[in-house]
Amino acid sequence: MALTMTFSTSLPLLVFCTIPMISALMEPTQGLEEPCDKILRRSRIRMRTVACPTNIKAPLLKEIPKKTNESLRYNCSLEEVANIMLHFGDDGLSVSRRMFPNAKVTEHLVFKKDRGQCAPIETGANKFVEDAMQKWSEELEKMKTQDLSEFGCNFYDDKVGDNNYELCCVFN
């Protein structure tokens, strides 16, 4: 009964989300030429936030390639993969692989910080990203030797659940 109920409630979500995202994943990477929220809005997916906020994304665009591979490009479609990973928590990687099989995520990093331990994200985004980079420093260093070409990140302000700011970056 529980398996049937889970499957029947998950199936519409997978169908609703997968079809529009397949076409979105086919689009070329736009970087900041066209804001990711416009690209992702065309896919009509609305789960939590859609595009990573600019005040979080801007320092990530600068820091991640510097710490991993200078030729690493930002891919807006991977923002939605990161969003799914944040949304589904521990099951995020397996859910994102089922929903976005073409994304080929090879690495992912998650950073969480209690909202009470940092400045509001509107004014403290740079410090939040700096803290994430520091926590991820070993993993990012190891990625220098991997054949990675793209990354995408997303952010979630969990005001209801764990009261965390959460950041996820995925790489392929």
How would you characterize this protein structure?
There is one protein chain. This protein has a four-stranded mixed beta sheet. The radius of gyration is 16 Å and the shape is globular. The chain is built from seven helices and four strands, in the order αααβααβααββ. With 172 residues, the chain is of the alpha+beta class. Strand 3 and strand 4 (164-171) form a beta hairpin. The protein has one domain (2-171): Pathogenesis-related Protein p14a (3-Layer(aba) Sandwich). It has helices spanning 2-26, 36-41, 54-67, 77-88, 92-99, 121-135, 137-143; strands at 73-74, 107-114, 150-157, 164-171. Helix 3 (54-67) packs parallel to helix 6.
The global form is globular
- Write down the Rg: 16 Å
Characterize the main sheet.
4 strands, mixed
Q: Count structural domains.
A: 1
The CATH class is Alpha Beta
Q: What percentage of residues falls in helices of 4 or more residues?
A: 40-55%
By DSSP, the count of extended strands is 4
Widest sheet: strand ordering:
1-3-4-2
Query: Helical segment tally?
Result: 7
N-to-C series of helices and strands: HHHEHHEHHEE
